Amino acid sequence: MREVLNGSGARSAVTSGSEPGAVATDTHALQRAIERTCGYLLTAQRPSGFWQGELEADISVTAGYVSFMRYFGFEIGERAKQVQSLLLCEQLPDGGWSAYAGGGGHLDVSVQVYLALKLLGCSADEPFMHRARDFIVAQGGIERCATFTRILLALFGQVDWETLPMVPPEIMLLPRFSPITIYDFSSWARATIVALTIVFTHRPVYPLPPEEGVRELYALPSHSRRQHWGPRPKPGPFTWGRAFVIADRLLKACERRRRHPGRQRALREAERWVLAHQDTDGSWGGIMLPWLYSLVALGCLGYSNDHPVMAKGLAGLEQFIITDGPHMRLEPAVSPVWDTAYVLLALREAGLPADHPALTRGAEWLLDRQILTKGDWQVKRPHAVPGGWAFELVNDQYPDIDDTALVPITLQGLRLPDEERKQAACERAIAWLLAMQSRNGGWAAFDVDNDKRILAHIPFADFVTPLDPSSVDVTAHVVELLARMGADPARPALQRALRFLYSQQEPDGAWFGRWGVNYIYGTAAVLMALRAAGEDMRSEPMQRATHWLAAHQNLDGGWGETCDSYEAGGPRGHGSSTASQTAWALLGLLACRLEHDPIVRRGIDYLISTQSADGRWDEAAFTGTGFPRAFYLRYHMYPIHFPLIALARYARGIDSTTGEDGDGGM
């Protein structure tokens, strides 16, 4: 037995799980909760076999739909009222709009929403527009906006293109051995930057009448505004940020010359790249930013809206539109592979037979989605054999490592009519994953060794994270898969990954969560991976981790953490309790065999007591991460399948008649 701090700061005993008498949770209520959620999920399965919950982002994504539809010359009809109603409902008392539920007003989100409202016909004299304008100007106005907000405004003539950082198309002609090429950027930044090389060359402007403009959002008069982005170069120590500012000045000076040798060849190469990277559903990378700017780029090159490539791209946006009563939202992406794999894992954990028809249909749908063609990852791994899965319905260029680890974890717990096909798919996935391990022993989301730190200083880094370095949560999922597939503990790849995980533990015992909010997510993922890998769960690193989790339990028995935890000095592990984060914390503690500890019991009781009658949990919080400190996500399936996994694993853990471990992780 050892002592840890509970959520109130008092000391409580955390046992090794050898005190079954400590369990007081109503097992009948526990079983009913599990059955309710299973019933809900079984009814939510799509006819073709998959599950897909809404993926919600901040309101700027929907506002962007209004702006880009106007740019491309489309009227949105009745949707205009639906969007306007949603935008006004989301306005905060301070006049701004937030980047996530519960957050304060955010300058860039607020400027983008304000522009959309002007385009929808709202007068600047409306009281809600006055409040929005006052908030924006108080925050520094358009001058303080991130680069991508100012690019959007430049498309409508509200920002001078000259004040934006230059993205020369000649970057497309740099050889692979150059210090920097497009393949040194993260997949999401790469696809966006290639499109922007065309956009910045042509500098398109869709002129707005004065009443639809937003020049009132400037905090300074025109004669006082800076004409360039970034800090003024000053004498002093060298920094990469200052170097990029100077480089931008030089590029713009060159741009003013009439002759640009190689420019047309560079633009043709950018055009070829953009066309080659459109997916069959019309998207680029399955996410909004590269998608929309690729359409803008092609428009600059003379592609009309009815050109097949443009028509497919514009029509593809329809599958991302959610209508919710009087409101309409645009999803930033869709997550059917991720959702389906987790739902299958949850239902299997809850006791559904391995060959249950619903599970079989879902698994076969996943097998059909395995990507057997090469993508951008082959640039650094030309000899690797494809075998990954993407997050979305279609994204063949960019299978991701997280999904590719999760799907086989799920499939291994199921029994399918064609077991040979299943096993072959899992082996292909593992071979691809091993090829994608970075030199530091970890795994990134999409790329390998994508960690050139100087790129963190480019101007676009103020919103779009330009790098995709190894993260502990993705690495943990791969480690768990390798362990569950029977990898030799002494295998070099596994040993390197374990060293990476241990090296990333924070001094207080937690692990950072890159793709989920935040330390609760990262800590739980690592603990489950280390359990699967056969590590000593009573060792000092595990004790520090469980101490941290226990110390951050709320008085109601749950756990919560806000997106503010990504800010410097932000509240780590603190926030109102949510079902998904409570489930993560419980899964981490259960991985340490703490089923019988009162802290775990209180967490389980929290989940049972807050479950809705239909088997779901109400959760408005954004617990998914797109870009830390900039862009967050609310996965509507998270407060369903994660609590089910936690409840089911706890039920099995307290059942003295079974010694089974869980089938999969987080």
Number of DSSP E strands = 7
Report the sheet with the most strands, covering strand number, pairing sense and barrel closure: 3 strands, antiparallel
* Helix content estimate: 40-55%
Mean pLDDT comes to: 90
Cα(first) to Cα(last) distance is: 27 Å
**CATH topology-level fold name of the domain at 58-221 and 228-330:** Glycosyltransferase
Output the structural class.
mainly alpha
User: Which band does the percent of strand residues land in?
Assistant: under 5%
CATH top-level class of the domain at 58-221 and 228-330? Mainly Alpha
How many helices? The count is 22
Radius of gyration: 25 Å
> Architecture of the domain at 58-221 and 228-330, according to CATH?
Alpha/alpha barrel
Shape: globular
Listing every helix as H and every strand as E from the N terminus to the C terminus, the arrangement reads EEHEHHHHHHHHHHEEHHHHHHHHHHEEH
Low-confidence stretches: 1-23, 228-233, 657-663
